[in-house]
Each structure stands twice: as C-alpha cells, then as structure tokens.
UniProtKB/TrEMBL annotation:
<dbReference type="InterPro" id="IPR001295">
    <property type="entry name" value="Dihydroorotate_DH_CS"/>
</dbReference>
<feature type="binding site">
    <location>
        <position position="144"/>
    </location>
    <ligand>
        <name>FMN</name>
    </ligand>
</feature>
<keyword id="KW-0472">Membrane</keyword>
<dbReference type="InterPro" id="IPR050074">
    <property type="entry name" value="DHO_dehydrogenase"/>
</dbReference>
<comment type="function">
    <text>Catalyzes the conversion of dihydroorotate to orotate with quinone as electron acceptor.</text>
</comment>
<feature type="binding site">
    <location>
        <begin position="247"/>
        <end position="248"/>
    </location>
    <ligand>
        <name>substrate</name>
    </ligand>
</feature>
<keyword id="KW-0665">Pyrimidine biosynthesis</keyword>
<feature type="binding site">
    <location>
        <begin position="67"/>
        <end position="71"/>
    </location>
    <ligand>
        <name>FMN</name>
    </ligand>
</feature>
<comment type="subunit">
    <text>Monomer.</text>
</comment>
<comment type="pathway">
    <text>Pyrimidine metabolism; UMP biosynthesis via de novo pathway; orotate from (S)-dihydroorotate (quinone route): step 1/1.</text>
</comment>
<comment type="similarity">
    <text>Belongs to the dihydroorotate dehydrogenase family. Type 2 subfamily.</text>
</comment>
<dbReference type="GO" id="GO:0005886">
    <property type="term" value="C:plasma membrane"/>
</dbReference>
<keyword id="KW-0560">Oxidoreductase</keyword>
<feature type="binding site">
    <location>
        <position position="301"/>
    </location>
    <ligand>
        <name>FMN</name>
    </ligand>
</feature>
<dbReference type="InterPro" id="IPR005720">
    <property type="entry name" value="Dihydroorotate_DH_cat"/>
</dbReference>
<keyword id="KW-1003">Cell membrane</keyword>
<dbReference type="InterPro" id="IPR012135">
    <property type="entry name" value="Dihydroorotate_DH_1_2"/>
</dbReference>
Length: 344
C-alpha cells in the first residue's frame, strides 16, 4: 500500500516539506490513545533470535534508524513503535544552527537515492537532551554529534566535548560524525593525526565518567584502502567501541538520473541504492583487515531485506536504514527482521 499509493503521492511534493509533514502527521496520530499500541503490534517483531549483544549493549533486533531522520530527538517515542531496535538522533551540534540554504534535499527517483546538503541543521545538543529526558519509550538511543559550521577545525574537539557532556546521561552510545560532506572542511578531520587526537580526547573524557558510553566513529564511503587502514589503527589506538560504515558519498558515478539533472542539483551527499555496493565493500574491508576486532554498524543503500543480510554477512554487527525507510515505508524494519529469522 505504501509503495503503490502513499509514496507516489508524497513524492509529488518537495522532499523537505514532506519530511516536516510526515513528522507532524506522526506526532498528531500517535496522540490518539490506541495508535501507539496498534503500531507496535503491526510493525514490531519480537524474537530472542534477533537479539544482539554489541559493545556491551543488548539490542532487541539489529535494525536501527540512522541519524538524519530525527535530528532533534522529537519523534523518538513514535519511531520506537515502528519496529526499530535502536534510533540514532542528530547530527547535533553544541549550538543551534539553521543549516544550508534551501533547496537542500533532492530525490533521485530513477536511482532510489537522495542527495542532501542539509548542513547539520538542528536545535542544539541541549534541546535534544531535554527532549530525551522527557521521552516515554525505552528504545535504545544513539547520539550522533558534530561541530558547528563556524567552529574552526583546530577547535572542533571543544564542540564534540560540549555535545558529549550535554547528551551523556540521555543516550546509550555516541557517534562522532566527521564524514558529512555538507560542513566545510569537516572531512579533513578524518585525517589520521587530527582524528586520533579528537578520539583520544573524547575517550579520555568518557572514561572519567561513572558510566562510560560506547563511542563509535562514522566514516565516509569515499576513503581509500590506505585511509581505511588508518581508521583501523585509529580505532585500536583510541580504543573506541567501533565504526559506522558508511555516511553519504560525494561520488556521482553510474547513476540513471540524467547528468544535467545531477549538475543542476549541485553539491551534497548521495545516499540510497547508489551507495549500497561501496558501503558493503568498506564494511567487508574493515572487518577482514581488522580481523573482526571491533563492531561495525552497516548503513548505506539498505532497501530490501537481502541488502540488510548482505551487510551482516560482510561483517556488520548491526545495520541502519534511512533512505530505504523513505522509499520502502514504515514496515521496512519488520520485513528485514522476518527475513533474518527465515535466513538464520
């Protein structure tokens, strides 16, 4: 029903407008008393065979919602009713910022992808923490953190520390985002020296806490094998919990969408089916070269249950969806969980 009737209607309108419409619709409909319980019954698959123990956390199933959908932790309770084993909020920055100018979100229907250059638009880490303190559900929460656009890279660590302290009592794990292509010079922080310094500083602060939280690093799919080798070394040196592979790509290769359309859209990170293969390659490389020494959350181009299994077989411990959720609809997590049970 979603793909045949609802998606074609939604896709007639501006992507960012539909995103806000969907948010408001979910907020309104889930205030109706029976809707949350009914949604949980329809969309949630509960089976001990789906449970995963990863970086010290027990996940009810391996399918999560990636960062970017619920930037400000405004819809955590509603999303918890759609069958996800965990929800990642953000990317949040220390101070609120509007992000880049509109239009900044574009559909590539022929490729089942999205291009976004949102630019970490969010209401700030403090607002996200306040929202999480008021939530009713107990769904596991990841906190994806970044730096403000105006913060120079030399002071980026201060922004990540500020986000860490705001969110440390309200999230179950952290994700350090240095791989978005939509904040100027952010990806320079993926270089070995600044990234090692950033993660060592964050981890040192984390270990001072009475209850340290797992810290993960989210990386781009555009890294070379040599750079991926550096990532493995950095993860092992800093002793963070793991890696999320991968973020969006700046590549525009092998697309079905006409080149003139792509050029008219301009800069931004590409997600969805076009990044599926490269994301899986990165997961497999990291898993094999590190000899499985740290967990990987696989994300990138997961639309079908078969895509999800591919990521897990490549070495991912957990997976996340975002663009696939938009294209495939609210039953995506349920379909993936049922498929995984049938293909254990």
């Amino acid at each position: 029903m979603y793909q045949a009737l609802i998606r074609p209607l939604l896709f007639c309108f501006d992507p960012e407008q539909i995103h806000h419409f969907s948010f408001n619709f979910l907020k309104f409909s889930f205030k109706i008393p029976f809707v949350p319980a009914l949604s949980r019954k329809i969309f949630t698959v509960t089976d001990p065979r789906l449970e995963r123990e990863v970086f010290g956390i027990r996940f009810p199933n391996p399918v999560g919602l990636a960062a970017g959908f619920d930037k400000n932790a405004e819809l955590v309770d509603e999303l918890s009713c759609l069958g996800f084993g965990f929800v990642e909020i953000g990317t949040v920055t220390p101070r609120p910022q509007p992000g880049n100018d509109r239009p900044r979100l574009f559909r590539l229907k022929a490729d089942q992808g999205l291009i976004n250059r949102m630019g970490f638009n969010n209401k700030g880490a403090r607002t996200a923490a306040e929202k999480l303190r008021r939530r009713r559900s107990r769904v596991l929460i990841g906190g994806n953190i970044g730096k403000n656009k105006v913060t120079p890279n030399e002071k980026a660590v201060d922004d990540y520390l500020a986000c860490f302290h705001e969110l440390k009592d309200t999230v179950d794990y952290f994700v350090v985002n240095v791989s978005s292509p939509n904040t100027p010079n952010l990806r320079a922080l993926q270089e070995k020296e600044p990234l090692t310094e950033l993660l060592l500083t964050l981890q040192a602060e984390n270990l001072k806490q009475s209850r340290p939280k797992p810290i993960l690093l989210k990386i781009a799919p555009d890294l070379t094998n040599s750079q991926l080798d550096d990532i493995i070394d950095i993860v092992q040196t800093s002793r963070i919990a793991g890696v999320i592979a991968t973020n969006t790509t700046i590549s525009r290769e092998n697309l079905q969408t006409p080149r003139q359309t792509i050029e008219a859209i301009g800069a931004g990170g590409l997600s969805g089916k076009p990044v599926r293969e490269r994301s899986t390659e990165v997961i497999r490389y990291l898993h094999q070269q590190s000899k499985g020494s740290f967990p990987i959350i696989g994300v990138g181009g997961i639309h079908s249950p078969e895509d999800a299994l591919e990521k897990l077989q490549a070495g991912a411990s957990l997976i996340q969806v975002y663009t696939g959720f938009i294209y495939e609809g609210p039953a995506q997590a349920k379909r993936i969980c049922n498929y995984l049970l049938d293909n254990q």
